[in-house]
Amino acid sequence: MAIILKTTLKTTLNSETETQQFAKTLAQNSNPPLVIYLQGDLGVGKTTFARSFIQFFGFDKVKSPTYSLVESYQNDIINIHHFDCYRLSNPEELEYIGIREYLKGNHIQLIEWPDLGKGIIAPADLTIEISGDNNMRKLTLDAQTNMGEELLKCIN
Ligand code: ADP
Ligand code: MG
């Protein structure tokens, strides 16, 4: 079945500060349940983006889940799971960490390297593709569901 892209938003960010601000604006308009894929080369800013997004909800320390596969954040208002599938050699490995439990319930999921978790991770509401070099970044945000589309309308 073809994925119909309902809405696309493109933006250029000229500094890390602008990326951080953009991530916080997105966070401010995000409501669970929501799944966001973060795509792009190594070092392009996926974790930087996720960190600011998560910090918006009051979590100061956000470390990259590259080695742990997933880091979770929970407080009175939100429950967030931040995945990084980079080190997976097989999506099935996600079963070992109890992925099914992570897929239940009312939360936000941010997923780096989603292609490597294909077939096991939740489908995306919003896909964010990051590219660029030096301090400039181009972001393409594609909504895959009505919820993703609503989110893009909010930040546009
Ligand atoms: P990834 O998770 O995609 O591998 P990271 O977020 O770990 O990437 O690293 C991104 C790097 O790019 C950081 O060192 C960050 O300081 C740098 N950077 C420079 N400019 C930007 C920008 N505009 N947006 C995001 N990161 C930036
Ligand atoms: Mg990363």
UniProtKB/TrEMBL annotation:
GO terms for molecular function: ATP binding; metal ion binding. Its main location: cytoplasm. One of its GO terms (biological process) is tRNA threonylcarbamoyladenosine modification. One of its GO terms (cellular component) is cytoplasm. It comes from the Bacteria. Keywords: ATP-binding, Cytoplasm, Magnesium, Metal-binding, Nucleotide-binding, tRNA processing. Gene3D superfamilies: P-loop containing nucleotide triphosphate hydrolases. It is found in: Cytoplasm. The keyword Metal-binding applies. Belongs to the TsaE family. This is tRNA threonylcarbamoyladenosine biosynthesis protein TsaE. It comes from Catillopecten margaritatus gill symbiont.
